[in-house]
Amino acid sequence: VKVKIPFGNKYLDAIFSVPEKKSTYGVILTHGAGGDMNFPHLKSLAAYLASHGVLCLRFTCKGLNVAYRTKAFKTVVEYLKLSDDYKLYGVFLAGRSMGSRAAASLIRQLSQNDDDDDDFIRGLICLSYPLHRPKLQSKLRDEDLLFIRCPVLFVSGSADEMCEKQLLEGVASKMKAPKKIHWIDKANHGMAVKGRTTDDVMEEINAQVFSWLRENVELEHK
């Protein structure tokens, strides 16, 4: 289901992947610095979640400014929260690369608002979290992660040039939130692995994301 979500004086393009049965939880998903919501990995994950009973709303927000992307993410969360068509108990925020930074930044912002007393946001899913720029391991983008309290899942490639394995494990050990890291063996930042098809890698990622979601909410399992 295609929708346009009002954002300032323009609109964000978004697509709902709707399960057959009414869903109680949803995932909001966005892309990295390049591309849009039709990035193959996002489409694959959205379809997988919907076929397993989880509503997925993915959206496009162009713009390379994390603050701007965070604002867009907030707009989408509020849109879904007030939606009459889909009454959800809670959502998980998910993003690929820069999209996951925006999601983390939003969760930190919301957790610092004293008036934010609801638990609509249940967790964070970071696909290829860009912990540092390539070859710039000294400057970590970990400040939002250290403030987050809700459960966090990282799915990263063990050969990701923007997320060195030991560095992410070090950040995770300092996090206060319940967290899990799933390493895709030999995958780079784009989740490409020599000798494996994209579909094969996506199957691994999708299954990991879904089983983690299931651990974190009692999803009505068919």
TrEMBL record:
InterPro entries: AB_hydrolase_fold, KANL3/Tex30_Abhydrolase, NSL3/Tex30
Pfam families: Abhydrolase_11
Domain named KANL3/Tex30 alpha/beta hydrolase-like: residues: 27-211
UniProt cross-references to Gene3D superfamilies, sorted A to Z: alpha/beta hydrolase
UniProt-recorded name of the protein: TEX30 protein
Organism per entry: Cephalopterus ornatus
